[in-house]
Amino acid sequence: MRQAAGDVRFHLSSDDLANVRVRGPLGPLAETMFAMCALHRPDSGAVQGEWRRHSLRRLSPAGACVMRFLTPASRIPFDLAALAGHTSDIDEALEAVRTAPDHWVREALETLPNRHILPAPVRGLADNDRQARLALMAAVCACHQATVAPHWDRIHTHLQVETVHAAMRLATDGLSGLLEQQRTRCRWRPPYLDVPLPRQERDVHLGGRGLDIFVSVFSRDLSMLIPADQHSPLAMVLPTSPDPGTALALWTSPQGPAHRRLAALLGPTRAAVLEAIAEGRGTGQIARHLGISSASASQHATVLREAGLIATSRHRNTVLHTLTPLGTMLLNGRTIQRSDNDPSATR
Prior knowledge:
By secondary structure, the protein is of the alpha/beta class. The chain has three domains: 2-25 and 153-243, no CATH class; 28-150, no CATH class; 253-332, Winged helix-like DNA-binding domain superfamily/Winged helix DNA-binding domain (Arc Repressor Mutant, subunit A), CATH 1.10.10.10. It is built from 15 helices and eleven strands. The strands form three sheets. The protein has a five-stranded mixed beta sheet, with helices on both faces. A four-stranded mixed beta sheet has the order 4-5-2-6. The chain has a two-stranded antiparallel ribbon with strand order 10-11. The longest helix is centred in the middle third of the chain and has 30 residues, at 152-181. Residues 1-5 and 334-347 have low confidence and may be disordered.
C-alpha cells in the first residue's frame, strides 16, 4: 500500500459501497509504524506521555536511527505493512518483509523524500542487499519491542472493542455517521469521499474494489492507504483517540486495578486465561504461557466459552480460542455505546 498524498477525492460506486467493511486492527507491525511516528512527535500529549517516556528508555540507538528516517512524525512514507501484508503476528510480518520481492521494496523506497541518503545499516535496501534487509528487520523488531510489544495484549483488546463500535456505527449511521463520530475533516458526499491531505488535489476511482476500515491506537489522523494491487480494497485507518482513563489502562501493568477487578470476578487463573486468549491461542499455548496443565487450561476455556466470553474453532487437531465481543468488552472494562434512540443501549 502507498499512503495517499494530496487533497484526494475518492469515487465510490454502488459496488464499492457494497464492499465497505470494518476489519479491525492492521496488526502489530503497522501499529509499530504508527507508534514510531507518535514517538517522534513533540506534541504527543499527556495521554501518551507515560508510554512515550518508557518507550524512549527502551529504544536502542540503532533501531531509533533507522526508524526515525523511515517514519517521520507527519506520515508513514515507507509502508512496511504493504510488504508484510495483513497479519496479526509480528514474527510472520517480519518474515514477510524479509522475503518480499525486491521490486516491492524499491517501490516503497520511492515514497521516501531522501531515499538516496538512507542510514548506513539499510543503505543497500534498493540494491538487493540481504544484509540491509536483515538490518531493517532488526530495527523494526527492536522498535516493536520498545513501543508496542509490552502493551500489545491490551492494545489489541482495545482495538477489538473499537472495531465493534465502528461496525455498529457504520451499520446504524452509515459511512457519514462513522466519519462524523471520528471528528475528521473528511466529508462523505455520495458518491465522493473527500479526504484533505497536504498536497495537490487528485481523484481516485475505487472501481468496485471496495473500502476496508481499520482502527489504530497510535495513528493521530485518518489515513487512506492505497494498495499497489489495483484489485485490492483501499484501506482507511481511523484513529481511536482513547480517553485519558482508557489510555492509562493501556500503558499500565496488567496487574493494575483492571486486572484485579477481573480476577475478583472470574478468579485469578481464569482471568489470566481470558487475558491469554486475547491474542488468540490454543489450549496448549495457554498452558505453556501460564505454566498450568493442559487439562486445567481446557477446563477454564470451557467455562469461559459456556459464559459466551470466548469462541473455539477446530481445524483437524488444532484448537484456537478467541475472544467474543462480550469477552473483549469485559477484558477491556467497557460497554457498547449504541445510538441514543436505541432502547437496548447499555449505559
